[in-house]
């Protein structure tokens, strides 16, 4: 009887193992998101006057935007959409946001801290980053391939992309594909459909 009981228990354990292992493996498999390429290396200063680099975001899925605090056009909408992401992933320590100013002359760490507080940015991995202007423009334009530049003829004096970049835990820019199978590269940071897609894809990266 003891041998039969032992065999029965062993069989149950074996069945559970066969069922459970694929579940565990699946959790850590790569998602179907397209790998655009490695995030450009960067080191900037955040709203708490702390040096933050791309290495500080390793182990986190995070979103990158280029903005400036006095922007009178698209930035307020972009920031509000970032607040949606903060709300969605507030309790996730492996989620983050990098909001990089393109007007570092105005956007000192002190100014960015006041802006973050006014906005309601509370996630501990949401860094508002500033640094040398030429460095930031190069980072935007040739690092992320997102447009940023000065234009005295437009409101606010600066122009920039309204797209968000999504970076995985290993420091790679990732994205989904469109209905034709082409990678979208970046996510629309202005319209709700883009934010909804971003929420779905952040969840995928958090599961990797």
Which key phrases capture this entry?
single chain, 7-stranded mixed β-sheet, 208 residues, 2 domains, two-stranded antiparallel sheet
The CATH superfamily of the largest domain is known as Glutaredoxin
CATH topology of the largest domain: Glutaredoxin
Name the poorly predicted regions.
Answer: 2-27
- What's the β-strand tally? 11
Give the proportion of residues in helices. 25-40%
Number of self-contained structural domains: 2
Most strands sheet:
7 strands, mixed
Just give the CATH class of the largest domain: Alpha Beta
Helix-strand pattern, N to C?
HEEEEHEHEHEEEEEH
Distance between the termini: 45 Å
CATH architecture descriptor of the largest domain: 3-Layer(aba) Sandwich
Q: How large is the share of residues in beta strands?
A: 15-25%
> Per the principal axes of the C-alpha atoms, what is the gross shape?
globular
Characterization of the model:
Keywords: Copper, Disulfide bond, Membrane, Metal-binding, Transmembrane, Transmembrane helix. This is Photosynthetic protein synthase II. GO terms for molecular function: metal ion binding. This protein has about 210 residues and is an alpha+beta fold. The chain has two domains: about 1-30; about 30-205, 3-Layer(aba) Sandwich (Glutaredoxin), CATH 3.40.30.10. The protein contains five helices and eleven strands, in the order αββββαβαβαβββββα. It has helices at about 1-25, 75-90, 110-120, 135-145, 190-205; strands at about 35-40, 45, 50-55, 60-65, 95-100, 125-130, 150, 160, 165, 170-175, 185-190. β2 (about 45) and β3 (about 50-55) form a beta hairpin. It is globular. It starts with a helix and ends with a helix.
């Amino acid at each position: 009887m003891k041998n039969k009981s032992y065999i029965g228990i062993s069989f149950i354990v074996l069945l559970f193992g066969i069922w459970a292992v694929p579940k565990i493996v699946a959790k850590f498999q790569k998602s179907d998101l397209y790998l655009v390429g490695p995030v450009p290396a960067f080191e900037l200063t955040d709203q708490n006057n702390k040096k933050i680099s791309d290495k500080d975001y390793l182990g986190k899925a995070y979103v990158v935007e280029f903005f400036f605090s006095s922007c009178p056009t698209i930035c307020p909408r972009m920031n509000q959409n970032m607040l949606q992401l903060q709300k969605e992933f507030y309790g996730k320590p492996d989620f983050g946001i990098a909001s990089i100013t393109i007007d570092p002359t105005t956007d000192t760490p002190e100014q960015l801290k006041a802006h973050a507080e006014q906005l309601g940015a509370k996630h501990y991995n949401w860094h508002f980053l500033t640094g040398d202007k030429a460095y930031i423009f190069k980072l935007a334009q040739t690092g992320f391939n997102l447009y940023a530049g000065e234009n005295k003829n437009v409101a606010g004096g600066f122009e920039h992309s309204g797209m968000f970049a999504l970076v995985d835990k290993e420091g790679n820019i990732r994205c989904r594909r469109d209905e034709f199978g082409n990678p979208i590269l970046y996510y629309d940071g202005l319209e709700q459909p883009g934010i909804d897609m971003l929420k779905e894809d952040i969840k995928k990266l958090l599961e990797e």
